[in-house]
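User: My collaborator sent over this chain with a note saying "see what the structure looks like." That's all I know about it. Can you take a look?
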Amino acid sequence: MQYAVGAPLPPPHGQASPGAAMNWTPHQGPHIPPLSPQAPAAPPAPQPAPGQGWHGPAPQQAPPPPHSSEVTGQVQLPPGAPVPLPSPPADAAAPDASHAAVAVLLIGPAGAGKTSVARHWADTRRVPTAHISLDDVREWVRSGFADPQAGWNDHSEAQYRLARRTCGFAARNFLANGISCILDDAVFPDRPVIGLGGWKRHVGPGLLPVVLLPGLEIVLERNARRSGNRRLSDEEVARIHGRMAGWYGSGLPIIDNSQHDVATTVRVLDDVVARSIASPPNW
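Assistant: Without extra context I'll predict from the sequence alone. Here is the result:
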């Protein structure tokens, strides 16, 4: 994922207070059994005779109408916080991250290798896993696309917000159907409302943020090998990297993949995800 590919950065909103950006409290969401949107509504439940209790099966509740925003495919998504952290077995020191159904948010500057790592992580897991790229979703807009390269404005800001909501909804849908997912985005620590706070609202408190942050010289070298609108100016790369350094001391796990290839970084990511599941940080 490349943030605003070659575009001016969105303006920082000042330093975030630790509570505003890191107040993540994972908890178990309610279990909602699958419902079919095509299933006919159940007939009215018979009323028991006076003085008698109901001894038959509980009447079925009709699913919401097909136009409901909480229905996707054949799974009704629970409201509020739909993605809890997986619960490790009581007798296990750390669960196997390659088998757990999880949602991971991979954060990092342009040139950190987020897209390559996210794709390889999704490709090599032992359970079904989807890679959801924010930039890919944002570029679904063809006519009327607000390219930040032409200048950051209300339209480009709105399309980023819309893409994040769309990615979050997709992640919820995949997870509700038993498919893990990894999202990649350049989330800045000085913009907590639309950064971690926004992803928490869109996906749920069980989302596991991980920062991919190699050294500046490595990011500049990788960016120089790019072409087209994926290549940023050195000044832009340095500014993005400098703002990303604010994640140090935040409590989020940080992977410095300066000396790692993609496969090695993926193994480190698996270890980080396993430890986050076993002992969730208090963000």
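A starting point for your reply to your collaborator: The first strand starts at residue 71 and ends at 72.
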